[in-house]
Amino acid sequence: MSLSKQIEDAISFDEIGIATARHGSLVLRSAFQLIYALEGEELRAASVQGYVRPNFRGSETDASAFFNGQHGADRSFAENLAVSLHLFNHQHVEIEGLDHLIAVGSASAVHPATAECIKEQALEAAAHSMTEPRIICSLVDDGDGAAAGIAEALALRGFELAIGSADACQPPVHTLKQFNPAIARFDGRWFQRIAADEGASRLLTHLVADLHDRRIAVLIDRIETPEVLFAAIDVGADYFKGYLLSRPQLAGVPVADQETLLLEDFRTRSAAILPFMTAR
Q: EAL domain: which residues (predicted)?
């Protein structure tokens, strides 16, 4: 049975069209986290990323434990199933016109059918939706070469790319220059450590400027404090994501009140704290 057929058999839709998936004894649901772009003195929702919410007999279980409990072909299937689930549920994000950042996991990155499967599922999801979002496939380069192979396959099928590093590691500059993705994704914990050092922060600003010269936008992930948010703005980042700004919400949950965030609100929160970029 093909990968696409396996996914088709696992996914079902409720009466308003929200997709869930059955994986063994678990029901998988989509939750979406907003990603913001800077517009003057506001942050405006520009895209979303989906996260799996496994559910066992009415109780949510840990997503990391779910994926880590899968191995080889089983994990690849679970990761691809998650991507398809999010593609079908994108239309149920209340804010219109958002791009869709989809994470391609480490196991599915080496599966030969993944790129074609994502293409098929994206076309199927578009056929069931009034809108067709810009899809950006997010890859992690952990140095084993897997990202390079899947990046080429996805690009050949017309997908834009976001490329980042493993958790808390520096951006994979060589891979970014090799593939010239739409987005370079910086891990927030690495960014926080570098931005806190004045000399390293200057180098980081030059790196962001170099990426912009290559028409590569920069996303700072895992933003959890106002100080990190303003440090990300200072170095010239384009996109901002993290629990400070929004938390993943199940598909269909209203999020219109999070579409626009005022920078002044975050300045007020950190007014009594020494500015992050000058703290030593």
A: 149-248
